[in-house]
Amino acid sequence: MIQQNIFIVNFFTLYEILDEIKENLSFKIIKYKNLDKLIEDPSFDLKNSLIVSKHRGLSLNEKISKKNVLTLSELPLKVNKIIELINIDLIKIKFNYQSNISIKNYTLNLNSKYISYNNINLKLTEKEIEIILYLNKNEKKQSVLELQKNIWGYVANMETHTVETHIYRLRKKISDRFKDKNFILSHLDGYYIK
């Protein structure tokens, strides 16, 4: 599961309150003195994050869109109401993020479990999606043992043919539907997406 972040900008009181209960939160909280400090941070990534501020006048730019900002200007609010508002926005952000993941020239939609290319869709299973995401995020070739461990949770007595069969079927589906025999490549060292 992808960690969601809440960037609290110039709202230290809220940060202190949430920091007190952080073990009960489903997101990570990070505070910043101002928006410039946030943008300067090399780890700054809004893909699956939300900026929370009490100021309406946050200057949005090409890095920050309106959908990633929650302004809490109507204060006071109960803490559980603030957490509810944050969670609602995070769900929206996660849904949008999962709707459009680019892999090579394809678009993977985790919500509908489709992979698309040139207006052609292919329905995928949960395991097929896991395989694609795992191979895509790893730059080196992944062996059958690595796939067993990281996709299937490695069972010592699991047949190695399980991985190979899943990869074979997935490659065949993609080849049949998109005429692409090179989406998942195999090598002596393992499988990979290039």
What does this structure look like?
- 38% of the residues lie in helices and 20% in strands.
- It is α/β, with parallel strands linked by helices and 194 residues long.
- The protein folds into 2 domains: 5-98; 101-192, Winged helix-like DNA-binding domain superfamily/Winged helix DNA-binding domain (Arc Repressor Mutant, subunit A, Orthogonal Bundle).
- The strands form 3 sheets. Strands 2-1-3-4 form a 4-stranded parallel β-sheet. A 4-stranded antiparallel β-sheet has the order 5-6-7-8, covered by helices on one side. A two-stranded antiparallel ribbon has the order 9-10.
- The model has no long low-confidence stretch (mean pLDDT 88).
Short précis:
The protein has helices at 12-20, 35-40, 79-98, 126-137, 144-151, 161-178, and strands at 5-9, 28-32, 49-53, 69-71, 101-103, 106-109, 114-117, 120-123, 185-187, 190-192.
